[in-house]
Amino acid sequence: MSKTLEKKWLKEAASKVPAGFSGTTAWQSPSNIALVKYWGKHGNQLPKNPSISFTLSASKSETSIHYQRNDSGRLQLKFFFEGKENPAFAEKIQRFLSQIIPYFPFLNQLSLEISSNNTFPHSSGIASSASAMSALVMGVLAIENKLKNTHETDLIKASYFSRLGSGSASRSVFPVAAVWGKTTFLTESSDEFAIPVVQQLHPVFQDFYDSILIIDSGTKAVSSRAGHALMDNNPFAPTRYKQAHKNIQDLYSAMQAGDLATFIRITEAEALQLHALMMTSDPGYILMQPNSLAAIKAIRNFREDTKMPLCFTLDAGPNIHLLYPASVREEVLAFIENELQPLCANGFWIDDIVGQGASAI
Ligand code: PMV
Prior knowledge:
It is built from 9 helices and 14 strands. The protein has helices spanning 2-11, 87-100, 129-148, 155-165, 224-230, 237-257, 260-279, 290-306, 329-340, and strands spanning 22-36, 41-42, 46-47, 51-69, 76-81, 84-85, 110-118, 177-180, 194-196, 209-213, 311-314, 320-324, 349-353, 359-360. The strands form 3 sheets. Strands 1, 4, 5, 6, 7, 8, 9 and 14 form an 8-stranded mixed β-sheet that branches. Strands 11-12-10-13 form a 4-stranded antiparallel β-sheet. It has a two-stranded antiparallel sheet with strand order 2-3. The structure holds (3R)-3-hydroxy-3-methyl-5-(phosphonooxy)pentanoic acid. Residues 34, 37-39, 51, 127, 129, 166-168, 224, 315-316 line the site of (3R)-3-hydroxy-3-methyl-5-(phosphonooxy)pentanoic acid (PMV).
């Protein structure tokens, strides 16, 4: 399927930039939190197993691109992060854009001034590559649309190119939830882009909360890139990939049916399995902190005592994502204040909820 898509995109690529062409386009795109995790990759940013995530709303990147035709025959780029010119990020983005230039040849005739900022604090430990890469790609597609005089952004195309920037970014452009990676039960699913699944989900998941407890805001000792690479020699990897296929199928069914008990069981198992894979890599490493464990224990005790349907998940770091439906919001807010906030670095947590994906600002 994607070979056909790639051919189509190559064929329809805008290559001519008219004299005097200039403008500004601004996009916001959120971060997302995986429920079934993508951990292990191959080829050009292809996943070893399918994943499913909630799209967030408060944790997002806002990126504006000022573009102007230049006659040098190559892309020129300046990048400002949170108001300050950032040559290191500029180099990274230049490398990414060079990679996708065959599909967007007009970039070679443009000077870009890109300004980006995140709504979540830089030092919160929240991964920004998913939101930043997808916001950037939305901007590039908007410039292409302007050249072609169209307005409709193809979100599958946005997802495909976001994936090349950062795997998990492929899932950020869609509302509420997305599946990335080939599954047996979703015929349209693909390793090369994510697909939207919001229409198929039970209403309870359409306004689910994610309260992100910032346990430690420092940078990770082992990057995601290095973590993915360590899966290549992890002795548990084949079992993990098999398990992920089963988990995503069961979780997806539970999310269609509104089965919160199964949702909780699989979501927590996935979080712990992700960290177990880190511990069983060679060399093994631990990204959880004592307060991550204290929060997990408190969440499980609270669930046991109150029978409320809340659960945790973890990204590749120590922070806890507390997931729950809108129906228990009030009680959970009190629980956070009384028991969880004291475990957070400087008492900091982010009040997030599933969101609508990327959009123009
Ligand atoms: O998109 P990357 O390469 O930063 O990897 C993300 C990996 C996890 O966040 C741990 C899991 C996921 O599916 O998002």
